[in-house]
Write a structure and sequence with these properties.
InterPro entries: DEAD/DEAH_box_helicase_dom, Helicase_ATP-bd, Helicase_C-like, HRQ1_WHD, MZB, P-loop_NTPase. The chain is α/β, with parallel strands linked by helices. The protein has 30 helices and 32 strands.
């Protein structure tokens, strides 16, 4: 049984000194002081004069200082870089004597977590890209090289491809880690504080608040000092480790720190104990669950496999026995059934279709098979494994295996059709290339014995609905050429009702469902990690960022030889985490580790992604920072730990899928969920059992969408003329759609309508219309010897608008670039490498307007109506913010062309009496409409393929009333480029969906929000929590 432990109460434990954070092995000492309660402020009425709230306990004269006053003054003005020379001048003017570094180091020793006293690159103090140095003279000319250097890594050298000038100027900064911030906006949806510019009264209050912390720290030191010892001597001894050493002067080569070999890494349980003993550990672990190791359960095939296949499994895969779920699936296929296997990650699911495939190829020299994967990376991974297996199987070495996808050259395709026994492909190619040309594929299709579809859970919503029709067209064409013996096998992560889902997707019965997992697994520790307060004595200081917690934990694990993958929800957070790791590892001198960490996400070129996959699989990497692009089963070698930064957008199913990526080879493993600040994260941190015990939602597809069916009927009729008898494949709407949408000949056959000829498949995109892409091109080396522009990545139009504008900070592999020029005509953005310590956030708005009504439907039980028709979306980026530490340092205006597109949607106007009622009760109408939109979506099964107008009531930090007035309307639209008829489906069921949403809200027992209420706040990460129930 799983063991659980709550960490709300901790036993007293001894903590190690000499560590500043999770990524360090050696470091500065800090004084240990007992926590004492604060004195309570006066409760007198009115505005009492601000005074210190902490009593001074008869201090020695040594502790008197005016340093804090100057620090508070400096931090209240963004125009001042708080460098030590600036502070020193002011302090010496107050103290009337020189201020030594050792005195400031004493302050750092007293408040190690609150004061930053260190050298940083001067570039990190910039506010403008042309300050200090013109960015054209960037100190870094090269961009990331994805191949690692051969041989031992020199810890005193920077990673390949990122050679920064060794003489880079550093400056000494002195500041509080929690800098003062400006006035908070009342807009809950706006994440950033305003540029700091404190009034004299606010500055005085800040000074007194920080003096309280200083006084409290000194009092704690005095109370903790043993009798007979001098507290001043103790403080001065601790301060020696906090005196910064300038990198500009110090060329000392320290002894290299060695990372343990991952094969000899410490046990995960020991690592968790070590974490809890660290100085920086502040009870972040709020829940721990242990899944004990499980022995594998073996079974025997009857009849046994042929000797040559047994030899191949042993030589190529080191397999000498099969697990119970593998035997059950192989036997079901041998009995003529279709099979779906839904077991844990790394349970050997690929063997389930590889073994029957070898048997088919051995029994019939003309046998063919089609293996279908959702991503090209996964297909390449499995192709290599099958080739290895065939080469080790006597008698099958000559069988050809080939990839047939969009990257396959046209001149090679005919040869693949004629000579390949197995093709690795995807549904896009089956839809657009194989089925429309069934005449040239006829021989191949006639001999197909097996079709394997991996990662079946990937196909859902509109995409899955299209795929279901492609499979039916495939079965129909195979039957037309005389092949009714095709068997289907699919593999999936753990999903709800796998057998039913396969039957719906493939349109077949006689499905064997295999869910009992017989594979062994090592012990796995699950931790839920919540960021602590910035200052444990001041709740108003806020919490530390989840990114800093996750990257610090990742550094700690990698330093101990533990191979880690960090999953991020979106590409931007992936790059920000990589940027943070790069900065932290560099500052800590762990360039040996930095050289073994890479980011992996969509947008990178295929070549770069293959190189990263190769480095990971070869065991050259200690850390990977990735989006869910690696959530699927690409084999990237042995992983010991998974860190999930925030709750995955894919829900509990994605959480379990990501957690399963660690411990793939039966070793002990670790999965850490670092909770973000969103309501859904707070919920699961408070209710962790739901992550492990809550059932997974059903995977939904729409088999009755007339829009999807009509589109595929045009394709099916082109492949083989249709008849009413095709109802056996496409269901009861076949006759209606054939008669209304196809062209009937005199013999009763239905043909493609002429307007869709010559190739009707070109009128359907299974994944939606492919967007135009912008090229992000690094021009840092242009004009230098041997310098050439380099394409960093391709950025979809929908993303480029928010990432590629002049002045934007673009991050690639954690390296920062500035966008210097954007050409919308050539779809190209020119980037320059620049070391900046800020990020940029676009200032934008999107208008969603109904422009033409096609249909009107009365809402049952109401006098109101719903409308369906054309919807126009216009997105405008009118500027951007420069942001540092979640505070705005500058606001910039832009003049960029708007992004206009049209789609279909439905909308409901809010009656004036309802608006008046909201106003009477003091409810913001825009927020209420927003919540109502998500209440509707929460009750609509295919909501993932609909969008709504997610926006806050007032944009940014405007104090004046917004002039961009929007109609009081609930509006929903299909995502641009997708034509699945989902908006029409929502319109047809609008009354039932509204009633279901109303009933869910009225019957929900929660008061402050529950998982159902907060489900869709994952989508709207910049908005307020919504009181919306399923």
């Amino acid at each position: 049984m799983p063991q659980e432990s709550s960490h709300e109460k901790k036993p007293t434990r001894k903590r190690k000194t000499g560590t500043n954070g999770p990524g360090t092995d050696e470091g500065s000492s800090s004084l240990k002081r007992p926590r004492i309660s604060r004195a309570q402020p006066s409760k007198s009425k009115g505005k009492a004069k601000a005074t210190s709230h902490v009593d001074v306990l008869g201090w020695p004269e040594h502790f008197e200082s005016a340093l804090n006053t100057v620090l508070a003054f400096c931090s209240s003005r963004k125009q001042l870089a708080i460098t030590f020379p600036v502070v020193r001048t002011s302090v010496e003017g107050l103290l009337r004597h020189p201020l030594e570094l050792s005195k400031v180091a004493e302050l750092k020793a007293l408040l190690p977590d609150l004061i930053n006293f260190a050298y940083i690159p001067s570039a990190q103090l910039r506010i403008h890209e042309d300050s200090a140095k013109d960015v054209m003279q960037s100190q870094t000319g090269a961009t990331a090289d994805f191949s690692l250097p051969q041989g031992p890594v020199n810890t005193n050298m920077r990673p390949a491809g990122l050679s920064i000038d060794d003489d880079e100027e550093h400056v000494l900064v002195l500041d509080f880690i929690d800098p003062s911030k400006g006035k908070k906006t009342s807009n809950l949806g706006f994440l950033y504080s305003l540029p700091p510019a404190l009034t004299p009264a606010a500055t005085k209050k800040l000074v007194e608040k920080r003096n309280d912390r200083f006084v409290q720290a000194v009092n704690e030191l005095l109370q903790a000092t043993p009798a007979g010892e001098n507290p001043v001597d103790l403080l001065q001894a601790a301060a020696r480790d906090h005196i910064p050493i300038s990198p500009n002067k110090s060329k000392t080569i320290e002894a290299p720190r060695v990372v343990p070999d991952p094969q000899h890494r410490p046990a995960i349980d020991d690592v968790i104990v070590e974490i809890q003993e660290q100085e920086w550990y502040e009870d972040q672990i709020v829940h721990r669950r242990v899944l004990e190791a499980k022995q594998g359960q073996l079974a025997e095939l009857d009849p046994p496999l042929p000797e040559n296949i047994l030899t191949a499994l042993k030589d190529a895969r080191k397999i000498t026995s099969l697990y119970t779920h593998q035997v059950a699936a192989i036997n079901a296929l041998a009995n003529g059934q279709h099979v779906i296997v839904s077991t844990s990650t790394a349970s050997g699911k690929s063997v389930i279709y590889q073994v029957p495939l070898l048997k088919f190829l051995e029994a019939d020299p003309y046998a063919k098979a089609i293996l279908i994967y959702p991503t090209k990376a996964l297909a390449q991974d499995q192709k290599a494994a099958l080739e290895q297996l065939l080469c080790a199987c006597p008698g099958l070495e000559h069988k050809r295996v080939a990839t047939y996808d969009g990257d396959t050259p046209h001149e090679h395709r005919a040869g693949i059709r004629e000579t390949a026994s197995v093709i690795f492909t995807n549904f896009d190619m089956i839809h657009a290339s194989i089925l429309p040309h069934e005449d040239v594929w006829r021989s191949f299709l006639k001999n197909v014995k097996l079709v394997a579809v991996d990662e079946l859970h990937y196909y859902s919503g509109v995409f899955g609905s299209h795929v279901a029709q492609v499979i039916r067209r495939f079965r129909r064409v195979c039957a037309a050429v005389g092949n009714r013996r095709v068997q289907f096998v699919s593999c999936s992560a753990t999903i709800a009702k796998p057998g039913q889902h396969m039957s719906n997707m493939f349109g077949v019965s006689n499905v064997a469902e295999v869910t009992e997992d017989g594979a062994p697994s090592g012990r796995k520790d699950f931790l839920i990690w919540t960021p602590p307060l910035r200052d444990s004595q001041d709740p108003s200081s806020g919490f530390k960022s989840s990114i800093s917690e996750a990257t610090a934990l990742m550094r700690f694990l990698m330093a101990r030889g533990i191979r880690v993958i960090m999953f991020c929800k979106i590409r931007k957070s992936c790059e920000q985490a990589m940027k943070a790791l790069r900065a932290e590892l560099t500052a800590d001198g762990r360039l040996d580790i930095l050289g073994k960490v890479m980011a992996y996400r969509g947008g990178y070129s295929p070549q770069d992604r293959r190189k990263i996959e190769h480095e990971a699989f070869s065991g050259n990497l200690l850390g990977i920072v990735a989006t869910n692009a690696l959530e699927l089963g690409v084999d990237i070698g042995i992983l010991d730990a998974v860190i999930m930064l925030g709750f995955p957008i894919g829900g509990i199913a994605s959480f379990r899928q990501q957690a399963g990526r660690a411990g793939r080879r039966a070793r002990d493993a670790l999965a850490v969920y670092v909770a973000d600040g969103l309501p859904v994260d707070k919920h699961f941190a408070a209710h962790p059992d739901e992550l492990f015990d809550k059932p997974i939602d059903d995977i939904l597809i729409d088999l009755d969408s007339k829009i999807i069916l009509e589109a595929h009927f045009q394709c099916a009729a082109f492949e083989v003329p249709m008849t009413i008898a095709d109802e056996q494949y496409f269901g009861p709407l076949t006759k209606e759609i054939c008669e209304s949408s196809l062209k009937k000949d005199e013999d009763g056959w239905y043909h493609t309508h002429p307007k869709f000829l010559p190739y009707p498949s070109k009128h359907i995109s299974l994944r939606g219309v492919e967007e135009e892409k912008y090229l992000a091109v690094d021009i840092s080396r242009v004009g230098k010897p041997g310098g050439q522009p380099k394409i960093l990545e391709e950025v979809e139009l929908s993303r480029s608008l928010f990432e590629l504008y002049e002045g934007a900070v673009f991050i690639h592999q954690g390296v920062t670039f500035l966008v210097k020029e954007v050409s919308h005509d050539s779809k190209m953005a020119k980037l320059l490498r620049a070391d900046v310590n800020w990020t940029t956030e676009p200032r934008d708005f999107t208008n969603v307007d109904a422009i033409q009504t096609h249909r009107i439907r009365e809402i049952k039980g109401s006098s109101q109506c719903a409308f369906y028709g054309r919807v126009e979306l216009i997105t405008t980026v009118f500027g951007y913010f420069k942001v540092r530490n979640n505070a705005i340092i500058e606001s910039v205006d832009l003049d960029t062309p708007p992004w206009e597109r049209e789609t279909t949607g439905l909308w409901l106007d809010v009656p004036k009496p309802t608006l008046q009622l909201l106003q009477t009760h003091g409810i913001n109408a825009a927020e209420a409409i927003h919540a109502a939109c998500h209440a509707f979506l929460n009750r609509f099964p295919l909501a993932n393929d609909l969008g709504t107008e997610c926006k806050v009531a007032e944009k940014e930090y405007k104090a004046t009333e917004s002039q961009r007035k929007r109609p009081a309307r609930l509006v929903f639209y299909e995502h641009s480029g997708k034509s699945g008829g989902i908006a029409a489906k929502a319109f047809d069921h609008v009354s039932a969906t509204l009633n279901a949403a109303l009933n869910a809200i009225e019957t929900c027992e929660c008061e402050e929000g529950c998982a159902k209420c907060e489900r869709f706040t994952v989508i709207i990460t910049t908005h307020m929590p919504l009181r919306v129930c399923m």
